[in-house]
Amino acid sequence: xxxxxxxxxxxxxxxxxxxxxxxxxxxxxxxxxPHGVEMTTFLPGYPAVMKALSxxxxxxxxxxxLGEKARLVGGKIDGxxxxxxDAPAFFQRDxxxxxxxxxxxWADNWRxxxxxxxxxxxxxxxxxxxxxFDLVHAHDWxxxxxxxxxxxxxxxxxxxxxxxxxxxxxxxxxxYGADVFPALGLPPHAWAMDGVEYHGGVGFLKAGLEAxxxxxxxxxxxxxxxxxxxxxxxxxxxxxxxxxxxxxIVNGIDTVQxxxxxxxxxxxAYGQLSLGKRVANKRALEAEFGLEASDGPLFIAVTRxxxxxxxxxxxxxxxxxxxTGGRLALLGSGxxxxxxxxxxxAMRHPGKVGVRIGYxxxxxxxxxxxxxxILVPSRFEPCGLTQLYGLAYGxxxxxxxxxxxxxxxxxxxxxxxxxxxATGVQFDGVNYASLADAISRTVTxxxxxxxxxxxxxxxxxxxxxxxxxxxxYADLYxxxxxxxx
Length: 485
Fold this sequence. Notes:
There is one protein chain. The protein has 19 helices and 18 strands. By secondary structure, the protein is an alpha/beta fold. A hairpin with a 2-residue loop joins strand 3 (58-65) and strand 4. The radius of gyration is 23 Å and the shape is elongated.
């Protein structure tokens, strides 16, 4: 029997991406397909999404979806079913899906994503003729209200279906004032501690977590961490209260797009048995960043420049990194003060530090293929993908021991090195002393050439494809459907 799942997300590759959520939402349909699951992705009708739908046909219309007209249109995304909410008043806006050109949240985000949730509940609850689903899977706060609507205001004549709520990052919750509640179209009893009310306002993510049949995070360690005040971001009590309904499933990566043996972005392809060819990529990367050519370690960082990512501590450690004989190539954007500080570091260390502000997908591939080690000093990291790309490309990860970083990188302690299973360097505590020590350890390991090659190969042998994770999601869907019958 085929399980039919509606995956509700605010972004998905290859159509729209601002972060790792898009990678996961885009990869899941293919990941679960071999395990008897047909997944339909439901996205807001952003300009890029509507452009990708050639001659879209209306499958359903809403005359008043939270005050605006909307229609449901269908198509394909990488060969898998795609549905989009064509609501121009909400989603036909250029640029970032969530913020305006000045970087401020769109003032009506609450209405935009509540409308998206309402529509998703109607579709997932089988109100649309010819579209039947067995389960709804919502991702992050932007999709969370779908589960609240299914719980408190299911579609007339619809079908009751189980649900999954996936937390990609607990820090983003969608919290709005109490004044928005009357416009949501929910019954009065939804305004409750076990409903949408949260600290006197409306909590979108909180509402989804309360309503979900099962809560998942994108790594087992993060599933444990969010039960604590340090990582729970105020929702740790809810998570603890539903502890038997919280699990972690590690994200996978697209091993077709991220494969150094076939990656057309690299000057030189290579594999586990031809690591010597990486030097051509290193030379090319040095030239691209204006760095001195050297046999010494080349560290890279591909990241958002935010406090969460520990980038302030990386800034403090740049002088130490250069002092060890290392060099740094950084690609990222975010906090303007951090952007300026990295530009200043590049001017202070010409030929040793290179910085590109912004994001470039092709360059990120070349950095993984030419860098020696990738720095990921995150204060919290639900899963992380850059360290997985690093493992696949023999770019050794140097990571804080948190969340998915702890789950996916094996520290090069003595036992792991002797056993040939070490794949990177982990450190505790995101502060100057810890990161500086990790950088020094990495440089020492780098000059132990046999050990370094063994670490690169161990990482490249690790299977972080979607095969295992796809099976885990499919098994979860089947169990929830059986439980609901």
